[in-house]
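User: I'm preparing a small set of examples for a lab meeting where we compare how different chains pack in three dimensions. I only have the primary sequence for this one, and I'd like the structure in C-alpha cell form so I can line it up with the others. Please keep the answer compact; I'll paste it straight into my notes.
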Amino acid sequence: MNRSSDTFVFTREFGARLRDLRHRAGLTQLELARAMGRAGKKAGNLVGRLERGDERYPSFGFIADFLRGCRAGFKDVADILDLYTNLPTAQQKVFDKALTGVAATVPQKWRSQVTTYDLQFDLPRAAASSAPEQPKPDRMKRLERARKLAAAARRRFQYGQFLKREVDRTGAHLSDIDKTVLFNHGLEWFSILHATRKQRPATRESRQATSEAEFAKASRMPTPVIRHVQDAVRRHFARMEMRGDLDWLPSLNLEQYEANLLVPARKRGLRREQHDEFQRKFDAYDKARKAAVEQVWAEVQSLLDEAGVPNERRPVYRGAVGACCTAALATESGSAEERRQLEEYMLDPHWIRLGLDTALAQKLAGIVLARFRELAQSFPPDPHPKR
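Assistant: Understood. Below is the C-alpha cell output for the 387-residue chain.
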C-alpha cells in the first residue's frame, strides 16, 4: 500500500526512547525479543532496527509487545506521539501552502499583512444555545480575503514605484519633506480613484476638488506642481485599469497543493540515511566553528583598539583572523605548514595595500591560534574523513 509523505513515520527519536526503556529494564536486544515472544537467533535484529529508526512503519502490536517486555507503558512514549498528533492536519497544511502561495505574489514587506489575521472575524457566530461543538474557522473565506489583501498590496507597490519616480521628476527643486508630502497627496488621489471606480463614481470629481483645495492650502505648494502630479496619477490609473491590474487576483489551486501533499512517500535508502546523518553532524560542527571564530574576533578587538586600527581597515584584520582559525584546524602548532599558510595571507601585497600591518598581524596570529585551538577542543567531532 502506498503511503502519503504526510502520514506517521517512526522516527529516530522514538527509537532512542525505546532503547532507553530497554536499558532501564536491564535487557539485551535478544533478551527483550524473547520476552516479546520472538524466537530465533536473529530475533534481536528486529529490536535493533526499531531502536535505530530503520523500521519506518512498525505495527501497533509490535510496539505494545516492546513496551510490555520492558515493563513500560504507552505513557512512557506519549509525549513523542503527541508531537505528531498535535501537528496540523493534512487539510490545514493544504490551506497553509495555499496561503503561502498567495503571499508570495506580493513584495516581502507586505507578506505579513496577507498571512496575519484576527481569527475572530473568521469564526462563524455561535448559536444562541450553548452548543458543545467548537466553531470552526472558515478557511475558504480566509483564503479569499488573503487574495484580496495580496492584490491590494501589489497595487500599493505599483502605485508607490510610479509615484516616487514622478514626484522626483516633478519636484526636483523641492525639499525631501515637501516631496514626501506631495507623494502622500498622490497616494490619496489613487485612493479616491480606486474608491470611486465601481461605487459612487459621481462623487469622484467633488472628492478630488476637495482634496486639491485642502492640500494646496495646507502645503502652500505651487498649483502647477500639484496638478502635474495629479494628472500623472490620473493617466497612470487609467493605464492600470486598461491592463487589468486593478482587477488582478493571485491564482488559487487547492487541488494542486493537495495532490502535492499526498504524493506517496519514497522509502529512504541507506545512502540517503548516511547523507542525512553526515549533514546533521556537519551542521553541528560548522555551527560550533563559526561561533568560535566570532568569539575570537570579539576578544581581539581590544588589541586593535590599542594599535589604533580604524574601523574601515578592520575587515582586513577580520580576514587575517579567519586565516589563523583555518590554519589552527588544518595544521599542527608551530609546524612549517602553519607558517606557510599564515605568511600566504599576511605577506600578500593585496592585503598590505589595503592597510594590513604585518607586524601587528603576526602578533594577532599568536593570540588567535592559541585561543582558537583552546575553543576547538569543545567542538563536536568533524565528520569529514581524516587525511
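A couple of notes for your slides: Residues 118-128 have pLDDT under 50 and may be disordered. The first helix runs from residue 12 to 25.

User: Perfect, thanks.
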